[in-house]
């Protein structure tokens, strides 16, 4: 997948050590990867990615990051 034009957020900064999610469009598919592990690529479509982002912004997935009480 080296010929794919990967984009990362301008908020990440430049250079190594600035891990972030990178996106690329492959036809009508959206590909996602983490910059520090570029061999692992997930794919989805724009509608599903949009729904995920809306859920994240709305806090609907916050419970998944909660630390269990001991």
Automatic annotation (TrEMBL):
Question: Would you tell me the protein name for this molecule?
Answer: DUF397 domain-containing protein
Q: Which organism is it from?
A: Streptomyces rugosispiralis
**Chain ranges of the DUF397 domain:** 5-57
One protein family per Pfam? DUF397
Q: Matching InterPro entries, A to Z? A: DUF397
